[in-house]
Design goal:
Oligomer: single chain
Order of helices and strands: EHHHHEHEHEEHEHHHEE
Structural class: alpha/beta
Largest sheet: 8 strands, mixed
Shape: globular
Number of strands: 8
Distance between the termini: 44 Å
Length: 277
């Protein structure tokens, strides 16, 4: 019996797309023409100067670590939420990794993918369906295999209709925050923390200001992040740690943070842990 099920929300609405996203990223994200152009693995890697696979792997390994901890705690379920669809094979590689863990660890998994743009959810569903068809052997592990994949439409700054408090073991923000105005970015962070369990992880991968003044990408990327992606330059000017300090104070949270830089500081991975005080 097929125990791996991928479903997409049926009542997708174009009207839910926020105006800032439509106005700023129509060329990259919200139209079918954009999806047809950008959904190429080589192009996704080129945009990140050949670093997509390394950054993807660094993000996905956090799920492996979290799942192993759940297994040690003898928990029988594992919940993952990816907030915003990603061009390329991020989602399918995460599924493959989770399925491999399921086979060893005998733990049911729920994987949620949330986005506000219907075309992105439809595109990601197509990629997942193709992956599951091509890798049909992943469906033959009997009763030890159980994965539900849900693609849901929601604005990341208010996921109250889609996600309850404290239900996710690990939540991903993979190159999302740079696409948002600051007030939306802060709300997205707060919402992501809200839906994550106590002692759960929030994994953020995004741009970062290069650490050296002689790094040529400091000067190559500045005009790109200023004009093509006008909200992205905020992540050069304002450390995410500042946002977390503000959120801790505002919500009486105790979020701890680990940070690692890549490609001479042009990219960062941040792992937040939702601790109890």
């Amino acid at each position: 019996e097929d125990r791996i099920v991928a479903t997409i929300q049926s009542d997708l609405q174009e009207s839910m797309i926020p105006s800032y996203l439509e106005e700023t990223y129509w060329w990259a994200y919200t139209t079918e023409a954009a999806v047809r152009f950008w959904e190429r693995q080589w192009l996704v890697d080129a945009i990140l100067w050949g670093n997509f696979n390394a950054l993807k792997t660094e993000a996905i390994k956090e799920a492996i670590h979290s799942h192993a901890q759940q297994h040690l705690a003898e928990q029988t379920s594992f919940s993952v939420t990816q907030i915003a669809c990603v061009y390329g094979n991020f989602s399918t590689d995460l599924i493959a990794t989770l399925l491999a863990q399921e086979d060893d660890q005998r733990c049911a998994c729920r994987y949620n993918i949330i986005d506000v743009a219907p075309v992105q959810l439809q595109n990601t569903k197509s990629k997942i369906d193709a992956f599951l068809t091509t890798h049909s052997d992943t469906k033959k592990n009997g009763a030890h295999m159980d994965m539900n994949i849900d693609l849901l439409q929601s604005d990341s700054s208010d996921m109250s209709a889609a996600m309850s408090d404290g239900i996710q073991d690990i939540s991903y923000l993979f190159f999302l925050l740079h696409e948002q105005p600051k007030h939306v970015r802060l709300q997205t962070l707060a919402e992501t923390i809200r839906i994550t369990k106590e002692n759960g992880k929030i994994v953020i991968v995004d741009y970062h200001k290069p650490t050296s003044n002689v790094n040529p990408f400091r000067y190559i990327m500045y005009p790109i992040l200023t004009y093509l992606e006008p909200f992205a330059i905020d992540l050069w000017r304002e450390p995410i740690s500042d946002y977390i300090e503000d959120l801790n104070e505002k919500h009486n949270w105790h979020i701890t943070m680990e940070k690692k830089l890549y490609f001479h500081g042009l990219y960062q991975k941040i792992v937040l842990i939702k601790r109890t005080i």
